[in-house]
Amino acid sequence: MTNKLRTIEIVDQYIDKLPEEIQQITVELRKIILDSSPHLKEEFKWSMPNYSYNGLVCYLQPAKNHVNLGFHRGNELKNKEWGHFLHGTGKSMRHIQINNMQEIQKDAFTSLIKIAVALNHD
Fold first, then answer.
1. Which of 18, 28, 73, 74 has a CA that sits 20 to 30 A from residue 108's CA?
2. DSSP summary character for residue 97
3. Where is the YdhG-like domain (predicted)?
4. Is the pLDDT of residue 1 over 80?
5. Neighbours of 3 (CB within 10 A)
6. Which of 102, 114, 106 is CA-nearest to residue 66?
7. Which domain covers residue 31, as residue numbers?
């Protein structure tokens, strides 16, 4: 299970209210995010879990039939090795839409999160 010292109660409560399959996806993605970097801090902003280190890094956005793993500086990840996973046309944010547990690619997502954290080292 996710390191309880790095999670916050409001996010626990939010996840507990999600439909079962969406909850499973969200819990697994949360674990991947927190395991990717000891620097990431969990927050609850804009009605969803966000993760920051020297600024915003990524977020989880559960919906009715999927969960988006989003990156606040996703446009800067586009040309990286795993950039083909990213969708979105906004100025900077990009996301990966996960529809079921089988679509979770731990190694790829971990690499993207580590690259996203590195963007905030400046």
1. 18
2. E
3. 23-116
4. no
5. 10
6. 102
7. 4-119
